[in-house]
Automatic annotation (TrEMBL):
PANTHER family: 64 KDA MITOCHONDRIAL NADH DEHYDROGENASE (EUROFUNG), APOPTOSIS-INDUCING FACTOR 1. This is Oxidoreductase. Residues 4-293 form the FAD/NAD(P)-binding domain. The keyword Flavoprotein applies. Belongs to the NADH dehydrogenase family. The keyword Flavoprotein applies. It comes from Micromonospora gifhornensis. The lineage of its organism: Bacteria, Bacillati, Actinomycetota, Actinomycetes, Micromonosporales. Its cofactor is FAD. Pfam families: Pyr_redox_2.
Amino acid sequence: MTHRIVVLGAGYAGATVAGRLARRLHPDQTEITVVDASADFVERVRLHEFAAGSELKRRALRDVYAGTGVQVRLARVTGIDVEARTVALTGADGPDEIGYDTLVYALGSASADHGVPGVAEHAYDVGSARSALRLRERLTDLGAGGSVLVVGGGLTGLEAATEIAEARPDLVVAIATRGGLGDWLDVRAGQYLREVCDRLDIIVHEHTDVSRVETTGVVTGTGEVIGAEVTVWSAGFAVSSLAATTGLQVAPTGQIVVDATMRSVSHPDVYAVGDAALAEGPGGKPLRMSCATGIPTGWQAADAIVARLTGRPVRRIPIRYFNQCISLGRRDGIIQTVTADDRAKATHLRGRLAARYKEIVCRGAAWAVFHPTLLVPFRRRRITSPATTVERHARSVRSDVGGGH
């Protein structure tokens, strides 16, 4: 009996899972399908570069998985029936359905408006390829002296503001942050960030809470108006509401609650990875939404699936952080070293060397996706007793979590 594994989403996390599974499981016993609405892999960590005018390398998913045995379905996921183990899809040919024995939910996240009026109508973001393209086109139309306000002082906001300011020195670029600028960085790294913003002539609005976005700028919580022809919203990310409609146990954030192996705590035949998963990290803190989280959770989920299907011990490798990589344009950056639970240490790397380091990280992440079966030793595992694959998997589920759904 062929064990059907369906991976929903082909971002960094989903793509990692699919490639690792293809490398480790025999194709005559498993059928691996990746479902994604985009025909191309999207380097999300570079979307701020694309919005500012850089060109990105495109790689079709079908080319990425050519020769691996992984099937690619280009469709949008519209529903999941966790009892029937089916996924509803809408593609070019209309509605369809696909069944699974093991499901990996990797649908990621999108820019979150946090209920602020006017964001959806008037703001731009870099949360997806489509929205980044929309911003790119708007910036292209913006003439010299035009004004851009980036709302949000996290990693995405800092990278977007500095990238736009460097690529378009003819524009007036500002950033509004709820707290202090880079206040989570160590003191010297924070000082360097301010120096970079000064050098790029970025206007900084600190301790500024935006309560409304309008066509001509934003209104703050104190009633102040900050004018801008283009508002870029980068105040965090949120997951789709889809998981919450399925019967899977989800957190208030809408993320699927998983154990240390990325398996749903309510439905053991479902795994969640990347931004879509609420996974506990060091110190009991939830892992943050990032590429740095997505790829390791993909490794963990794939290895756990292989182990359970082949009757081997499940390895639980703690996921921790080492640094935060911030590009500040194409020639500058900060690499902030952090504790295992993501708190800044008193050491960092900055300047051109930091920019090169960040570039190596981005290229490495993309290379791993574009070569999905090359990073794992060639040891394809056979599922024990192929005729009873599903039953053995069910027994594993019962022993690990003490029951079914």
